[in-house]
Amino acid sequence: MANLKDLAIQLFDIQAVKFGTFTLKSGISSPVYFDLRVIVSYPKIMRSVSEFMWKAVKDAECEYASICGVPYTALPIATCMSADHDIPMLIRRKEAKGYGTKKIIEGHFSAGDKCLIAEDVVTSGSSVLETVKSLQDEGLVVTDAVVLLDREQGGSKRLAQNNIRLHSICSISKLMLILLEAGKVDQKMVNQVQKFITENNTFNPEAKPAEEVKKVLTYVERAAQCTHPLSKRLFSIMQEKRTNLALSADVNTAAELIQMADSIGPYICVLKTHIDIIEDFSADLIQKLSSLAAKHNFIIFEDRKFADIGNTVKQQYGGGMYRISEWADIINAHAVPGPGIIQGLKEVGATKNRACLMLAQMSSKGTLAKDTYTAESVKMAEGNKDFVIGFICTEKLSSDPAMLHMTPGVQLSAGVDGLGQQYLTPQEVITNRESDVIIVGRGITQSANPMQAAKEYQEAGFLAYQALFN
Ligand SMILES: O=c1ccn([C@@H]2O[C@H](COP(=O)(O)O)[C@@H](O)[C@H]2O)c(=O)[nH]1
Question: Which of 138, 168, 299, 468 has the fewest Cβ atoms within 10 Å of its own Cβ atom?
């Protein structure tokens, strides 16, 4: 591997570093310009650059599971680092494909994995931050970026403000000194470049860090804020399966329920049941349903809508022919009896790590679950966060990121059925009402092709979620 002086001179000699008058992307005129794109024509220099960058992160003891180059110039650099040191690589597309997987990030990863960013030149840090955002949107964690050249115009400070450590191989000042000593530039040019850097700092310490202005949290960030294992798991499933769709499987036989759960399972995060409308209920159905929940990684929500005094709901939840607490991850309850209902349900469900949603609003026309009733339901939920993990509602009701909002009455077109059910679209629910999960029943179960319909709802719901970050 060349030493830094040799590398700097080689970069000058291949015109990856140029002096003159150049108009930058920002419109500013600069006396120096870096064009690292040319290094693809010089494999030895390319390898030298990638080795310097790899060594810098090694010396800094950075932890990461993969590496992602900022497109496009840093892609071949990241490729060399990946191939030479057996570090998996991820590729960030500048635009999602309009067909096929429509992915922005190519490569295999799991939510929560740490990814290192590689870049050729940093000026303000904005290109690095764009890549950071794309990776974070997919659930990856970014703490470090490595760059060949830091133009010292505020990029490292802006990145630090966004909790990204920048490791640079060479600063522009150091590069100028090396080139001066090697007789490649004169003192006048060094002064001119120094003046340019001083006068063109892009960092505004008054600007709020991106984290502070960001209001919408990703599913991964919300999972991290959950203390209840079920809400944590649900947010993780939503990210992993890229779905905020709950299927309301309102069918009347065990065979239909099993068939729905198996065919629609891949597209949903939650399967909602009304177990008392099944005509041939048996323990075998529950066993099969639980196996399908494990196979397709979804949560079972029995939409029992408990509404009695604590002592009665305890028996309804834990006993009777359905023994709901033995298989339903989540149940729901009306607030109408007062807090005793939560107490009763909690006595049965808490030890089994089950959870409850408060019915704070309803989708049906003329519902009385509004205004003060809704506010009191929210209060009841917030006082019992060890068991209540969210709401059945028609809009966001709590600012606590751990609280889930699940909205029924969703179809691809807004409207009403003949019995007062009112429908909102997935976009309206996720974008404008800021709910988290769309609950869809007949829009899927009664469509000519339920699997295709489920895919459409999954896509509409998840796209609406992703659009929250644009
Ligand atoms: O306010 C509420 C609470 C629950 N539901 C239930 O959701 C589904 C909706 O089915 P669609 O066929 O999509 O209308 C159903 O099981 C209801 O019991 C609700 O609609 N509104």
Answer: 468
